[in-house]
Amino acid sequence: MSLDEVSFDAGVFLLTKAKAKALRGGVRREPGVEAGPIPGPGIEKLEELEKEKGPAPGAQTRTLRLVGTIPPEIWNRLGTKIIPKLKSGSDLKIGVDFSVTVSADSARNIESDLRQILEDLGLADKIRIEQ
User: Fold this and answer.
1) Cys-Cys link to 22, which of 27, 45, 64, 108 (CB 3.0-4.6 A)?
2) Which of 104, 100, 105, 94 lies closest to 127 in space, CA to CA?
3) Residue-wise pLDDT tens for the chain (131 aa)?
4) Domain count along the chain
5) 31: phi then psi, degrees, rounded to nearest 5
6) What are φ and ψ of residue 52, in 5° steps?
7) Are 127 and 96 a contacting pair, CB within 8 Å?
């Protein structure tokens, strides 16, 4: 696992699936009794099994959208923090809406450069340039 995949967030704890089910089911420990590790497959194997199973029959799904503006200083962090989290779902679609103001003299050159960049990235048929 690379460092950009690791995140430390206040109030976030990792539990095994069995421990989470026990806590959800209302199973309580006696005070002062320490629970040991719960034997079973690692988290990677559990995630793999969950993906293979898919959603439970009759399970409801929700679509989440993130909408807003993002300052250029954090674009890279968006790619390392948010996109991996979104990839855990299905039907991920990411759109772009860039807007920049340039001088009329340089607009044609910038547009030409942008078209070439989109062509190089294989995105010329997916992203259009509007004026």
Assistant:
1) 27
2) 94
3) 676 676 666 666 677 888 878 877 765 555 554 444 444 445 555 556 555 555 556 668 888 888 888 888 888 888 888 888 888 888 888 888 888 999 988 999 999 999 999 999 998 998 999 88
4) 1
5) -60, 140
6) -65, -40
7) yes
